[in-house]
Amino acid sequence: MVQLFYYETRGKNYYRLLKHEGHPSKILLFPYEGWARPACMTYWILDVPWWSKKRCRVVEVCGTKKNTTKAKIVNSGSGDMCVVGRFKKTPFEPDFKLFLTTNVSNADFQLGYSMTGTLERGDRRKGNWQMTHYAMIKRKGY
């Protein structure tokens, strides 16, 4: 039955899926090969409060170091979402855009992912963005 729920929610609203997963959601980040900087194994924790669908708290965990910020969720429609925010203590590329979609491919669905997407980092004022990581949220039980 759990597999049937995820199969039926492919391409549907992201909030229903995040609510079913439970709060907070762990986002696995895999470095993009074209990114020139070294990247340690990090993951993000996305916590959407019950009273808002447009705001969230993002915690970046890199080893024992944690950065926390508040971010805005933009619903792009048809199961797509964009999380936009800024880490204040990061000296370079403080801004981020996290794009996630519930329209996962069959291969990703078989690997246990319920949402996939990309992470872009850069500077919003200068307008330069680089794709740095692939982002994925695993289903319950995987």
SSE blueprint and pairings:
Layout: H1 2-8, H2 14-21, E1 25-31, E2 42-47, E3 55-62, E4 65-77, E5 80-86, E6 95-101, H3 106-110, E7 113-123, E8 128-138
Antiparallel strand pairs: 1-2, 1-8, 2-3, 3-4, 4-5, 5-6, 6-7, 7-8
* Sheet with the most strands: spatial strand order: 1-2-3-4-5-6-7-8
Query: What value does the Rg take, in angstroms?
Result: 15 Å
* Largest sheet data: 8 strands, antiparallel, barrel
Portion in beta strands: over 45%
CATH fold type:
Lipocalin
What structural class do helix, strand and pairing data support? mainly beta
* Distance linking N and C termini: 15 Å
Q: Count the beta strands.
A: 8
How many domains comprise the coordinates?
1
Q: How do the helices and strands follow one another from N- to C-terminus? A: HHEEEEEEHEE
CATH architecture title: Beta Barrel
Q: Indicate the mean pLDDT.
A: 84
Poorly predicted runs are none
Overall 3D form: globular
CATH class: Mainly Beta
Residues in helix, %: 10-25%
Query: How many H/I helical runs?
Result: 3
Summarize the structure.
This protein is mainly β and 142 residues long.
Question: Any key phrases for this structure?
Answer:
Lipocalin, 3 helices, mainly beta, eight-stranded antiparallel beta barrel, globular, 14% helix, 142 residues
